[in-house]
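Thread: magnesium ion complex, take 2
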Amino acid sequence: MAFLTKGSVAALIAAAAGALCLLLESSLPWLVKFPAAWVLPATDWAGAAMEWLLALIKPTARGFSALMFYPMEAANYVLSNTPWPLVICATAALAWILGGVRMALMALVGLGFVLASGYWPESMNTLALVAVSVPLALIIGGGIGILANEYPRVRKPVQALLDIMQTVPTFAYLTPLLVLFGFGPVVGLIASAIYAAPPMARNVLLGLERVEPEIKEAAIMAGGTRLQQLFQCEIPSAGQQIMVGVNQCLMAALSMVIIAAVIGGFDDIGWEVLLTMRKAQFGQSLLAGLVIVIFAILIDRMSGTLTQDRREKHDPRIAWGILAVGAAASAVFWGHIQQPGAYALFNPVADSVDRGLSAFTTANADVLTAFKNNVLFYVLLPLRIGLDQAVLPFTWGFSWTPMMSLGLFATGAAAGAVFALRGQLALGVMLLIAAGMLETGISQLPWPFVLIGAGALAWVAGGRGLAIMTVALLATILVSGLWERALLSLYLSGAAVFACTVMGGAIGLVSAVSPAVWRVVHPICDMLQTIPLFVFLIPVLMVFQIGEFSAFLAIIAYAIVPMIRYTRHGLVSTPEEMIEAATASGATKWQMLKDIRAPYAAPSILLGLNQTILYAFAMLVIAALIGTTGLGQSIYLALGQADVGLGISAGAAMAILALIADRMVQGFAEERRKALGL
Amino acid sequence: MRANGARLSTPPLSEPRPVSGSETPAITCQNVWQVFGNDADSALKEVLANHPSPDDAAGELRSKGLIPAVQNASFQVQEGELFVIMGLSGSGKSTLIRCISHLLHATGGEIRIDGENIVEASAKRLIELRRKKLGMVFQHFGLFPHMTVAENVAYPLRVQGVKKKQRQAKAEEVINLVGLRGRENHYPRELSGGQRQRVGIARSLVADCSVWFLDEPFSALDPLIRRQLQDEFLEIQAKLKTTIVFITHDINEALKLADRIAIMRDGRIVQIGTPADIVLRPVDDYVREFSKDVAKGRHARVASVMETGAGLAYGADDPGLRQDMTLDAALARCMELYEPVPVRSPEGNVVGVVNPADLAAALQVEQG
Ligand SMILES: Nc1ncnc2c1ncn2[C@@H]1O[C@H](COP(=O)(O)OP(=O)(O)OP(=O)(O)O)[C@@H](O)[C@H]1O
Ligand SMILES: [Mg+2]
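Output below.
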């Protein structure tokens, strides 16, 4: 077998395992359905262990919760009782200092919109939560980053922990916190602090590590104590990177505060979205969603200026002036200004959106339903349960026969053989495997095949260690009884990732070739990345109602951005001399793309794929709100029932899937980078 | 311009030059080792116990996958002396200077500054030493990007808790000394390379150090600015009379500045001597290679080739050679002469004798 490449060996092993499972399927039913008797009550164990642990720290937690109550109330009181002209002018003044006229105008218009929408009080409630959770997250994250920098011993474990925290879905945090802290806004606060601390820690550590060694040495030679070195020299020198952390921390906190609205009990803007969504008042929920988007954009752009290299100085006197105007306006019109919640200028608009929407959906019902059903019946369903069950006379007009299976396999085998003969054995075998998966459906793949196949893939991507880790982690999901749900999650996110890869790759490619297209795509990407996860649900829900298809679309909308960005970036960042060399050899534009740019962009595109996968998993859980099956749904259900065991194990299973996908793609990217000598 | 008379020394030239005043050398390095790698400390101890020869020990360390960046370095630097370290890239110069300033903890050996063993000094004592005694200038300047020129320069005083007024006044003084008046409120990114290095120099001077480390301070600068800064550097040194350890790649810079030069190769110090020693009496081809392109006649002095001692005979001609003349100048005076001629001290006493043929031969060293 010495002449076979690693990839071919792995593909052959997986194919053999699949074929064996397929043959024995009828006589050994436990190959497909993991026997219930073998399942360990891991969920219950996790539940019991967590309950025990939580009971242990509960008094402390409750104490902490009581303690956090005060700053939260204070922030809330201040924000909701300050006259709105003052809040708006204070924000505009801050925006002026940070970014000049443009930024100040943006703040004025944005907050003006919020005021006019009538969601002012709810927004202030949300802001109050952010205002308390962000300092908490900054302190925790900054502390962790600094400690990891000071003690190289803990750096590796801390980095690993941060990696894992990034893959744990947001909802999974909530259940244990709910049990710990009881229902109420404090859960949202703590969840958002926990969720927002890792990006801060990561950036602080990165910034400190990147401070030039000579700057550190200069601080030592000046005779500074360690604390002086750290706080007077190293941290200020790492300022820009730390500000990137602050920006990411703010955005994460806002996003989580809004997600935490599902717990309820706090009259904030996220809750408003949920409520209106449930009542099918889409015009209103769109409005509330827009308010969230406005806050996200304002916070992002304003804190983003801090990360810029050289900021222009803006005269603070003007800021004071704006502030004074706000104070004067509040004082003069004290008795006359309306309660900020009373403005509802856009209600007619919202109503007409509702009306227009129903008119639109009724008018285009045929097209929309056809679109939805086509994707569902001809793409998603076959992927999920396989052609053998999805092809029914009712939808496809005929039923699947064994002959057709044979035909499918024969086609796969023939195509595979063609590739194998052209020297691409691995690709050929993979085609055959794909045919088999199409026949069976992802959610009904025999578990031994999944374990072996994933193990083989991991072996190619990252060697023996990764293969062992993959199989072991997947096995824990298997024996803990979450297997079917995990496969369902895998199917939906897999389908979404595939769609993102194809479409995002194409958009990225076009953006790379045409700057004009990129000028349009770029701001859209920026926008999509600023919007909190939650808001993606609104438009898809409006048009396609609750269901798997809407979830599928929401996941694509959120996860496609990294694919576009990284593809374009990889394609345009080919070194100039390589392009010149290719031009000098007489390559056409298309040849250049195919032979030079694409191979060079491969590592970057793989990283984009990696991000897309992580994004898709993150959104999968959120999308459970509008109807998905699988792990996401379990996490969501666990939240509703305060079932810690289920919440933790489903969250862990989700994190495991994300982690494995992450490591494998990273492995492939690393290999490509090495091959290119980067 | 030069305050000391280092070049008046007589052979054998590699001995430390006797210096006025204090008995203890400013810096003493005794069998200093710096080994990089895992468990370097214990590995070095074990290897040294089994291998008496440092070269064997270094070889053994390498075969274990460790990097002996400095091997068995021993030398002394006298108070007020300007000691230059030269060597190819990666030969361990920076590592050695970082050991002496204790930015790295030496793996083995003893380093004394004014008699005090700093390898064993406590963290607190080290901070004190750095505040009062040691100054350092970095190759890439190491300026704090978030501080203005004045704040950068005053920083060593700030960590000591000096009041703002006072430290500003002192910073102003050194900023003037390095010729940066009027730039106090600029940020480092607004300065040229030469100006940045002046800031680095000013900062290392502000706390009145008595031992000054400079790691390739001028190599990032273009030749014109470099020459200008070298001259200013010598002026400052003449004023302040600090002890200096100076790293450079540039033989001409070394010859221009040094009292003595140490040449390093792969972690070993292969030769220590005066500029004339290095140029005229290189111990091996590696050292010879360094000074190959140097115009020797302009750097070596008559003192380095004359014979001394009682009762040396010389001829009737006296072309008026002085011991501190360069070889070029001396040769120009006795082109026509074949007899040994007398060499006089600045006071006019005959201190030695030189044969014009030796003068010519000295300039041809590498051909011979
Ligand atoms: N922290 C370190 N860890 C491992 N090896 C090191 C470390 N620092 C230096 N070295 C190694 O020690 C050797 C000497 O390095 P050093 O920086 O002292 O060289 P140098 O003479 O200053 O060179 P240059 O002229 O390029 O500055 C090199 O081989 C280098 O790779
Ligand atoms: Mg160096």
